[in-house]
Every structure is written in C-alpha cells, then in structure tokens.
Amino acid sequence: MTQQRYRDLADWPLTVTALIFLGAYAWQVIGRIEGSAALLLEAVMWATWGIFAVDYLANLWLAADRGSWFVRNLHELVIVALPFFRPLRLLRLVTLLSVLHRTLGDTLRGRVVTYVAGSATMLVFVGALAVLDVEQSAPDAKIVTFGDALWWAMTTITTVGYGDMYPVTPIGRMVAAALMMSGIAVLGVVTASIASWLVQRVEDTAEAVSEAEEPVRVEVADLAAEIAALRREIAALQERRTP
After folding, report:
1. Which helix (H) or strand (E) segment is 18 a member of?
2. CA-angle at 234, arms to 233 and 238, nearest 5°
3. How far apart are CA 177 and CA 179, in angstroms?
4. What is the secondary structure of 110-126 as a DSSP string?
5. CA distances, 114 to each of 70, 151, 175, 189 (Å)
6. Which long-range contacts (C-beta less than 8 Å, at least 24 apart) are formed by 64-71?
7. Rounded CA gap, 98 and 103, in Å?
8. Res 86 pLDDT > 50
9. Which of 110, 139, 157, 218 is deepest in the core (most CB within 10 A)?
C-alpha cells in the first residue's frame, strides 16, 4: 500500500465523513440542540474527527519520506490537533474544508465554473454556521438566526459589506476576516479564469487566421518566384539584343 493508493481509496469515504460532520454541526448550531440530542451530535462530530486524525496518521505512516512529509504538512497537524481544545472548536471547519477540497477539488478543478460556484457556496454555508455558532448567544448580537448569518456571509464573501449585520465577538470577527480573504481568493480565481479564456480565444483566433492565410502566402511566394524568373528572362533577352 502506497500513500497515493491510500489517498485514492480514502478520498470518497472521507468526503462522506466530512458531510456527516457538517450535517451534525449544522443541526447542532441551527437547531440549538440541548440535552441528550446535543450529546449524540457531539459524539458523532468527535467520531468523524477521529477518522480525520486516523487519516492524518495513515498518510504520515505511508509517506515515502516521513520526516519530509511531516515538515511539509505541519498545517494539517495543526488543524487536526487544535480543535481538541474547546475554545478552538471552529477550527474543525477548517479541516472539513480541507478534506472536501482535497477530495473534490481534483475532480472539479477542470470545470472552473462548477468548482468556483461549489467553493463559494460551501464557504458561505460554513461561514454562516461558524459566525452563528459564536454570535447567537453573545450580548448585543446582530446575527441571531441562520437566515441572518447566511445574508451576512453572502455580503461578506463578496466584500460588499452593507453593515446592517456584523459580528460583535472577537472570534466572529476572525471568521469575518477569513471569509473576506476567501472571497477575494474566489474572485481571483474567476478573474484569472476569464483572463485565461480570453487569451486562449485570442490565440485560437490568431492560429485560425494564420492557417487561413497560409495558402495566400504560398501563392504570393509562387508569384514572386515567377516574377523573378520573368525578370531574369527579360534581362537575358535584353543582353542578347544589345550589340
């Protein structure tokens, strides 16, 4: 078993695990679940989190150069380990996005529109959940329902920011900053994709024009050769007639 083989086999099971985690987290935040149901949802989230941790350990074990892989993937260790501390529970959403990006990104990246739309939708949904989780119980909170959180997330990721709703907690403002930077990145992908498409169209048009002009260039070259030959014949005839 190689690391690449393992990743190929684990991609879709990890995607399903991530979606289960997202569903449990969304249910807990939006429904404000308490009591035994809340404990059950928390258990589901920790179980899926354990699968993410096992995935990290499996990748480390199967890496050809474990030391090099460990150093190059320290961020994965951080986002797996830190959420075990209760105040940093929102970082679990970072790993969720990382897993979904890893498993779905390679599939959709070639279809830019689908990839960008999917990424933006996921960021809005996760950002809304994250800010609602920390804001809904805060004093003087402006974001207290999931509808408010979705509206805020959409205006934030597009960097519009109407200001009618805004986070009042430090963690909520950190979520806002991350969402704004993500929005800029998504818009950058869109801009780069459009620019690449335009350049490709120009290159294709230039190539088509060049191919269309090729017969004309060949004909002009043949005519030039014939004219040169006629000039040489005329010059030769003039030389003969000259006494």
Report:
1. helix 3-31
2. 115
3. 5
4. TSHHHHHHHHHHHHHHH
5. 32, 22, 25, 12
6. 64/3
7. 9
8. no
9. 157
Nearest C-alpha neighbor of 89 from the set 35, 28, 150: 28
pLDDT above 60: residue 91: no
Question: Per 3-state DSSP, what percentage of the chain is helix, strand, and coil (rounded to 5)?
Answer: 85, 0, 15
Candidates 180, 189, 183; CA nearest to 109 is: 189
Confidence of residue 151 (pLDDT cuts 50, 70, 90): very high
Contact 209, 183 (CB under 8 A): no
Distance CA(210)–CA(71), nearest Å, equals: 50
Q: What count of other Cβ atoms lies within 10 Å of the Cβ of residue 25?
A: 24
List CB contacts of 105: < 8 A, sequence separation 6 or more.
115
**Average pLDDT over every residue of 52-68:** 86
Q: Give the Cα separation of 97 and 125 in Å (integer).
A: 11
Residue 110 CA from chain centroid, whole number: 11
Give the three-class secondary structure for 35. coil
Could you report how far apart the first and last alpha carbons of the chain are, in Å? 95
C-beta separation of 12 from 103 below 8 A: yes
Write down the pTM of the prediction: 0.62
Q: Which two tokens stand for residue 57?
A: 């350990």
